[in-house]
Specification:
Non-ribosomal Peptide Synthetase Peptidyl Carrier Protein, Chain A; 2 strands; two-stranded antiparallel sheet; membrane; 5% strand; 4 helices; mainly alpha; transmembrane; ion channel; elongated; single chain
Length: 123
């Protein structure tokens, strides 16, 4: 069982996924900082000085912080759009690097056989 687990864990896909998760988490922190410290204050100025993170209302003893929810939605949209742009750019580079399909080289004998076949068809 241990050897089977090692084979699974050492496959390229699992390691790539782990690296992707770590980089994604770090990228998420950067985008969250961008949203919290730059974008949302600007949106607050545009909307009349409102701070979305402080928007809330109280129902009994429960505090519903819908401003934080709005901020998380903005975080998600910016992260998703950033990843979309990154993947799109990466795919453009991959398409340029892919070699074009090679034109098959036809042997001289094959060419002669094709000509004979075409002549026989025409007669």
């Amino acid at each position: 069982m241990w050897n089977e687990f090692k084979k699974f864990a050492m496959k390229g896909n699992v390691i790539d996924l782990a690296v992707g998760v770590v980089i994604g988490a770090a990228f998420g922190k950067i985008v969250t900082s961008l949203v919290d410290n730059i974008i949302m204050p600007l949106v607050g100025l545009i909307s009349g000085g409102n701070n979305f993170s402080e928007l809330s209302f109280q129902v009994g003893k429960a505090v519903i912080k819908y401003g934080l929810f709005i901020q998380n939605i903005v975080d998600f949209l910016i992260i998703a759009f950033s990843i979309f742009l990154f993947v799109r750019t990466l795919n453009k580079f991959k398409r340029k690097e892919e070699p074009k399909e090679a034109v098959p080289v036809i042997d001289q004998k094959e060419e002669l056989l094709r000509e004979i076949r075409d002549l026989l068809k025409n007669n």
